[in-house]
Amino acid sequence: GIPGDRPLGQNAATRGTVLARFEGRAAAPQRAASHRPPHVQPDTRSPLPHILVVDDEAEIRDLAEAALKKDGHTVKTATTQAEAERFVRNLGQLDVVLTDLRIGEDDGLEVCQSVLDIRPDVPVIVMTGYTSMDAAIGALRAGAWDFLPKPLELEPLRAAIRRATQHRALSQEVKRLRREVDGPVAEFDMV
After folding, report:
1. Alpha-carbon distance 50 to 29, whole Å?
2. Taking the CA atoms of the chain, what radius of gyration do you get in angstroms?
3. Contact predicate 103/77, CB 8 Å
4. Crossing angle, helix 81-90 and helix 108-118, to 10 degrees?
5. pLDDT under 70 in the chain at which residues?
């Protein structure tokens, strides 16, 4: 999860500042209500992510699944592009997709593109044994959030998952704050 105690922007005093920070503009000063403490730490805690691992190599798939489950994550696995697309369409919560560049006869870049078409807010991490610059550039052009070389090492995998989930959580918080700020405006009677 993401460190912290409370979701970002839980009170009006911090809401404008948090949204402004992400939009790169100065925050409008806001008065804190007298019943609130003068400084409230934002909570960025979220449930551990739900991850889909897509790889036709049982060894790699099982290694990633075991390591991520050990870290407390919920993990689903798929061995084909079609199976991965079914999961992406049908899983309620999905936070990260980890896919191989080559999945048997299937193309991991097509998995990446499918995920982004179906659920554009879900980061896709592409892993591959083909660690050429062309492979990395192709993955990033297909919309991959990150690129990991094989053989898969657990610490870089964990770091990539952590970065992707933190990015997604912050993006979702920004969207929530924008909806809150742009929400219904009170109507005033002009007399």
Report:
1. 37
2. 20
3. no
4. 20
5. 1-47, 184-191
**β-pair partners for 125:** 98, 146
**Eight-state DSSP code of residue 19:** H
What is the token pair recorded at 171?
Answer: 């993006």
Q: Cis before residue 151, ω within 30 degrees of 0?
A: yes
How many angstroms separate the CA atoms of 145 and 164, rounded?
Answer: 7
How many residues are listed for the chain in this entry?
Answer: 191
CA separation for the pair 114, 120 (Å, rounded): 9
Distance between CA atoms of residues 36 and 16, nearest Å: 16
d(CA 155, CA 99): 17
Q: Residues 56-107: pLDDT tens digits?
A: 999 999 999 999 999 999 999 999 999 999 999 998 889 999 999 989 888 8
